Amino acid sequence: MLASEASRRILRLGLLSGGFILFAGVIGMIAAFHEREVVDDFISLGQVLLLATPFITSYMAATRLLESGESPRLALAGGLAIGVLSALPTVILLLFNSDDYRYLLDASLKLLPFVAASYLAWKSHAQGNEPRQVAATWLIAALLIGIVSFGFALIFEVKGDLRGVLVNVDRDWVEVVTFDHRRELWTGIGLLLAASAGAGLSGVIMRILPEVPRRALLYGLGITLLVGAFGETVRLILQENLDRDTLRAIFRRDTLRQNAAAMLFIISTFAGFLWAMFGGRAQSEFAALDDSRRHQVRNLGMLLFAALLLALPWLIGRTLSDVAVTIGIFVLMGLGLNIAIGLAGLLDLGYVTNYAVGAYILAVLTSIGPLGLFKGTFTFWSVIPIALLAAMFAGFIFAVPVLRMRGDYLAIATLGFGEIIGKLALSDWLKPLIGGAQGVQNIPKPFLFATELKNPEQLYYIVLVASLVTLFVSIRLNNSRSGRQWMAIREDEDVATAMGIDTARAKLLAFTLSAATGGVAGAIFAAKVGTVFPNSFTVFISINVLSLIIVGGIASNPGIVVGAVVLIGMPELLREFSDFRFLMYGALLILMMINRPQGFIPSKLVMHEVHAGAKPKVSASD
Amino acid sequence: MFRNKSGEFSWVDFTIDVLRVLIVLAVVVGAWNTLSSGRISLAQWVNLLAAGLSQGSIYALIALGYTLVYGILLMINFAHGEVFMAGAFSAFFLAEALNRTGFLNEQPLLSILLMFMFAGLISMTVAVLVERIAYRPLRGSPRLVPLITAIGASFFLQYAFRGLYGSNFKAYPQVRALQGAVQIGDISIPVAQIFVFCSALVLMFGLHWLVERTRIGKAMRAVSENKEVARLMGIDIDWVILFTFGVGGFLAGAAGVINGLFRPQGVNFYMGFIPGIKAFTAAVLGGIGNIPGAMLGGLFLGVIEAIGPNLVLAGLGIPGANQLKDVIAFTMLVLVLIFRPQGILGERLSETKA
Hints:
A: 3 domains, B: mainly alpha, two-stranded antiparallel sheet, globular
């Protein structure tokens, strides 16, 4: 590889990482994550974000550089450059934001149009355009860029500071990125540059290390950071099993103490070292076993996993059981929607409809409040089948009109249904029935043999059973006649019709079955919260479910379960995340579609619609 | 009637036909009840119509972005509503600054023009970035793929702008020159509505001129006709597609300012989502891919949304009919997609397009 090409790649990666850090700061992510201490009085999640970005970027850059035969010295220089470049945009914004150097912002906004226009004109000249065209390019570019940058200059001048526009460029952000040196700006900037450069360098050094210590250190770092970030969760789990004094030695409130973190790092690095040394051998020994033994080992694993699932509420306590119930509700919906999206290729964006139908049916039938129709005649158990059937009916009704639509039209039409249901639930028209914006209240908890299942630990089992039943059904559906029909439709509807498949019937079945679990999920949700109101049933539910299917792996049952655990569980456990939840989902949907359309745990029958190797057939640039 | 082309009984057709009859019945009964009760006077109807037209012209401007992109790439740019939001949200700060300096009320026309350009250019940048990052790498892949990235881009943009500018509603300053109403007999029409309608009209004519009369417009038409042949003719397809996204974005940004100026509740990060779906409805109504169709579809949708609840729903005795405005719009969306996917002006789309 040419040196100039290598330096250009380093420049690009560095600016990308710097842009990411700047963006994360400007939208308030860094300051929000700073609230979460990873290691007590040592490092916060925001600082981890700040340093992990150059670390990972330079690690990746070093991989590429070393693979293409560059010297380690160049890689080290590259890491240093990436580290500095990562901090640079943030440093510039810090200067713009400080009282002493605000004139720089004004000056650069006023210079920008001329510089940018000259650059574009120069490019146009380099392409061999005539002078007249070059001049026109300069003029138009200067005018257009000028309007925007002079507009911003005016805005900032009138406002007096950046904060009036960019609400998250505030004191907290400055505190984090200058490592608590808000008053001495240049010290802070120096610290930021040094820390970032150090992170960049250590990324490269990590890559240069031999395999075994590298893997051991990465394990150690990863596990320590993970435990630290989810400190609250870990503490809640340990609280169930450890006595108070031990707990206090490990945690200060919800954060890991420094010596505990150091211990954890040493232990996990050692474990990583052992795994790196001997893990390969264990794997090859497992592969060398004969089939029946391998099955035995696998069955033992499954048994342990089942025992873990059963004992989970005792192990993790009340708060986390509540999260587990929410995850379970989304697993149910994910598996249901997967029948439509994953198996039959029908992109249904109105899945929240079924969820709402299930929830409202349960609410209206069992509520003991003023809106309850029967006031206690119906129990949770007798309403679950009704909710299921009602959701299936709703799925059926909404499916009939859209049977003839394909692809994107279907998606938009179902999205429209979802919005219609939301508006109707809010309307005065249906208020006497379902309570308008206040919704239906006083929904009793389910009873089992005269015990009220009022705790999340108990509700967990309802969700678990429902999820397992759904999982079983969807695994069976995969290989059923209908499943095969759906897959045929997914791959090519015309061919499926030609093969004699009644596509209308098959699609209806897909919509109806997929609606069923949505109804059950809604009913369980209603019983869990005790109140049902329209704000719980927005398009965001549908997007949540869609994201977890796409991220986990379309048409892949284990993928969906893992997707739900990660995508639903993480924002619940890391509250700092919840503000950026949909930002993250949106970015994930784009990144997954571009880089890994089959999902993290792909199904073996990867769908054609988003096929892994679906490289552009008619691309304009080839 | 209930038989498909091959003459067999098709229960899907049957259900859809029943649905059609029911809807016509509901509309007729509702309209009859309202009209015969005489609850709403002629002047009120005219006011509703004017409000509908001005709202509809905003939909039309957004719908043009959908139609332009669909005409060229056959994909729904789901994030277009957020492009609209980006311009409206950003231009709020300019409007406020101009108001603070007093320029807004001294030179209302000039400052509004400035805001159009500012918002348009910001929306253009956002649209172009979305194309470059989320759509171009996936060009030519199966059709659901870009739709999913578009949904991702839509939510990403919403929450990115929430992070940038905060989650509060921000109300544009009032422009004094646009207050008041024009009196014609006993009908009074707010100046604001006339202004909205006229500025949308000017922008649409600008677009028409761009597409029909300029070199780049010719290239756009060529690319939408056939990409391969256009490339053989020496047209830089990537540039044309980028330009199309840019033009659509510019119109959306301008629409954002128009909307922001007359939105009493103010602008926020979520303001683009619902208008985005409605504008898509408008684009489909007029026949997607068809530029005059999108304009007509937008106006039509605006009028239906203003008149429909009062005419049909109130006539059917549904309380709080005006809350159900959005329901009317989304029902229109579903109905058009069922009964006339090619739209009012659209020719029958070939299988690949529909």
